[in-house]
Design a protein that fits this description.
InterPro entries: AB_hydrolase_fold. This is Fungal lipase-like domain-containing protein. The chain is of the alpha/beta class. The chain has helices spanning 5-8, 10-13, 31-53, 66-69, 86-94, 137-148, 157-171, 190-206, 223-226, 228-248, 250-263, 280-295, 297-303, 308-315; strands spanning 73-81, 100-108, 123-127, 183-188, 212-215, 269-273, 329-334, 359-364. It has a domain at 5-215. It has an 8-stranded mixed β-sheet with strand order 1-2-3-4-5-6-7-8, with helices on both faces. Helix 7 (157-171) packs across helix 8 and helix 10 crosses helix 13 (297-303).
Length: 367
């Protein structure tokens, strides 16, 4: 049940170049160090759920703690949820009445006497993704379906995450910089969607700019269906169509412009592999947006905030907004030819060595 034990063991599966025996000193100003550490914390949430399923969570043979304790974090809180939808209710029968772990809050606790790095977070809230070989598969797959049709809040995991992060933020002191050194968000796949939703919510509703590390966030690319050669033309036609409809649906366009203005300061880190169909849509969205900005800047500025689906809902008096519509992001694209393009493990690999990452990054801003 769950992932194999070897894949859950930090000393076997974790980042060899970041382990204590290497004598490395973690540098929170180093983007590679941050990426590796945060990816390992997210992995810890997967293993935590496995430990609970095997009923070894608080026993000496629990495997999860090594994934955060190795980087001087301690578990502050477990994010566990009891949804009342039919999928989750049936799943709890398998779980013997308990809810499922979908994330955790980790508190940074450097060794006594050690210097606290000024750029280190105080807390990291991490969310796991889908676990195909675990009893959580039913609620996880329901949530994936909801993401696909932009109905994330049908199952209340997203709302529960917002609530718990809000409670954490209310319980601590937030500096004038909006919390950038206090609370970070992170997630993989489904968990990246949750972190994205929480980050957007905190920025638009509480004006809190929380750093976010989103590994393989779901946004399915159309490129495999339409072909890379036709992609440019398809996106151009799409931009023209959205721009024209925006002229008609002025209230919706104005509302989205206002939303983009609120979100503009937030620049989440998006980690996507160019071979990963699940997250490649974010690569296409930002890269094609830049192409259109160069060709038709005025049109691109308006069309980038709109989606056909949202505008269709607007015609029926409903307000929707696609979560992939982000004004700003730091997009990290993995171009490596080997390995599983959707696997979390790739993001704690070193840029050096036989299985090195081939990363390029670009900061996208709006307008």
């Amino acid at each position: 049940m769950g992932l194999s034990d070897d894949k859950n063991k930090f000393d076997v599966y974790g980042p060899k170049h970041m382990m204590a025996q290497t004598g490395i000193e973690f540098d929170w100003d180093d983007k590679d160090h941050c990426r590796c550490i945060i990816a390992c914390l997210v992995k810890g949430t997967y293993v935590l759920e496995c430990d609970r399923t095997k009923k070894v969570e608080d026993k000496p043979d629990a495997l999860a703690p090594a994934w955060w304790e190795s980087f001087h974090f301690q578990r502050h809180n477990v994010l566990e949820f009891n949804c009342e939808c039919v999928f989750c209710t049936n799943s709890r029968r398998i779980f013997e009445g308990r809810g499922y772990v979908y994330g955790a809050v980790f508190e940074y606790a450097p060794p006594e006497g050690a210097r606290r790095h000024p750029s280190a977070p105080s807390y990291v809230v991490a969310f796991r993704g889908t676990m195909p070989r675990d009893p959580t598969i039913a609620p996880d797959m329901l949530q994936n379906l909801c993401i696909l049709i932009n109905k994330q809040h049908v199952c209340h995991r997203f709302l529960h995450a917002r609530e718990k992060v809000g409670q954490l933020l209310s319980s601590i002191s937030i500096p004038n910089n909006g919390g950038s050194s206090v609370v970070w968000l992170a997630g993989h796949s489904l968990g990246a969607s949750i972190a994205l939703d929480v980050g957007r919510h905190m920025m638009t509703n509480r004006d809190l700019n929380l750093p976010a590390f989103l590994f393989n966030p779901p946004h399915v690319s159309l490129a495999p269906a339409i072909g890379e050669a036709a992609k440019k033309d398809v996106y151009t036609v799409g931009y023209l169509g959205r721009y024209a409809l925006g002229k008609v649906l002025t209230p919706h366009k104005d509302r989205m412009d206002e939303l983009f203005q609120k979100l503009k300061p937030w620049k989440p880190n998006l980690y996507a592999h160019e071979r990963d169909i699940i997250s490649k849509g974010f690569i296409d969205y930002f890269e094609q947006r830049e192409v259109m900005k160069d060709r038709l800047p005025g049109m691109a500025r308006t069309a980038a905030t709109l989606s056909f689906r949202d505008m269709a809902y607007q015609l029926f008096g409903k307000h929707e907004e696609r979560p992939h519509l982000l004004p700003s992001a730091l997009l990290w694209k993995n171009q490596s030819k080997d390995g599983n393009a959707h696997e979390l493990r790739q993001w704690w690999q070193s840029p050096e060595g036989p299985k090195k990452l081939v990363l390029i990054h670009n900061l996208y801003t709006w307008p």
